[in-house]
Amino acid sequence: MPAANSHTHIPASKAPRSLPASGLGTALFSSAVFGLSGSFAKALLETGWSPGAAVTARLTGAALILAVPAAFALRGRWHQLRNNCLTIGLFGIIGVAACQLFYFNAVARLSVGVALLLEYLAPVIIVLWLWAASRKRPRALTFGGTLLSLAGLVLVLDLTGAVKVDLVGVLWGVAAAVCLAIYFFITAKENDTLPPIVLASGGLMVGAAAMWLSAATGMLPMAFSTADSRLGPWTTPWWVSLAGLVALATVLAYVSGIMAARALGSKVASFVSLTEVLFAVLWAWLLLGELPRPIQLLGGVLIVGGVLLVRIDELRGAAAVRGGGAAAPTEASPLEHANDVEPVP
Q1: What is the pTM (predicted TM-score) of this model?
Q2: How far apart are CA 255 and CA 12, in angstroms?
């Protein structure tokens, strides 16, 4: 889902009742820097970097930087790593390594905006899977949001347009959405024993280790380049794009996302994180000269609108559960739980 901010679970009884200006500004800032990832990655890919190399460098650099605050958060509680090793491992392999690798592969073949919109189909995949598994039709609002997002997908692909969308790129984008959906199922269970920054740092470390292992065994092509990259009107050294990808689009995005979630509550912060799509399109336009075609922009609006409807339905369902209403479901959907940390797109 989100273009994805990191957030910590806040019980409903302690959730803020208003939107502090500082918290809202921090959440928007987090979405803005998260949205930079596709542009910085594509700048590197266009100079000869392989998607695997870009993901590996990003995860390794961010893991090293976040290791210090994570160790500080764990002082005296190192047993939490052992108790949560499965969650950290699955988060790192699926939510971090696979999700980012597939997204970067999509970015290599599609515009940044289209690739991110495809990844945002994760909530639709979750709804369809829950529907198939439970054989219960989703509530009207969720069902409508799903149909709206699927209609948006058709417009984003622009199947009747003169310029055809790369099919392989589309498959990579859908694969990223599947990984994102799997991640949400993995981490749907509330976890108050592991600080979010520790899960983020541990997941980045596991993801980086998985990428290096795949490269060492020859499974993952690695290609690096020291050629200058192009960002907007500027020609910059390669390390500028890499530093932006690591420091801004990963480390700073995670830290600000955690701060925003603590100020606003996880649900509100996750709503604000939807603006990442808009920021990603804006950055791609300013830094890469990319802009989806009008019909694709319309499709993006429908996809985001559909996700919003699903999110609103989640809130209504969760409120009904807390209120004990007659229409409340007896068991909360995995989508109704806050996640400790959302994966970096």
Answers
A1: 0.77
A2: 22
Q: What is the pLDDT of residues 125-174, one digit of tens each?
A: 887 887 888 777 778 888 888 888 888 877 877 766 655 678 899 999 99
Q: Could you write out the DSSP letters of every residue in 135-153?
A: --PPPHHHHHHHHHHHHHH
Query: What does the pLDDT look like over 100-126, one tens digit per residue?
Result: 899 999 999 988 888 888 887 887 788
- Rounded to the nearest 5 percent, the helix, strand and coil shares of the chain are 70, 0, 30
Residue 37 CB-half CA count within 13 A? 35
Cβ neighbours for 32, distance < 8 A, ≥ 6 positions apart: 275, 279
Residues with Cβ within 8 Å of 196's Cβ and at least 6 positions away in sequence, in order, are 6, 7, 8, 258, 261, 340, 341
* Residue segments in the chain with a per-residue pLDDT below the cut of 50: 1-19, 326-341, 343-344
Model pLDDT, residue 5: 42
Burial, 14: exposed, middle or buried (Cβ in 10 Å; 0-12, 13-18, 19+)? exposed
Segment (H or E) for 323: helix 294-323
* CA atoms of 19 and 33, how far apart (whole Å): 21
Q: According to the model, what pLDDT value does residue 151 have? A: 85
> Is residue 6 within 8 Å of residue 37, measured between CB atoms?
no
SS3 for 235? strand
Q: Number of helices and strands (H, E) in the chain?
A: 16, 2
Taken in order 127, 145, 298, 100, is the CA torsion positive or negative? negative
DSSP state of 194: S
- In degrees, rounded to 5, the angle at the alpha carbon of residue 317 between the alpha carbons of residues 312 and 320 is 130
Q: Is 17 helix (H, G, I), strand (E, B) or coil?
A: coil
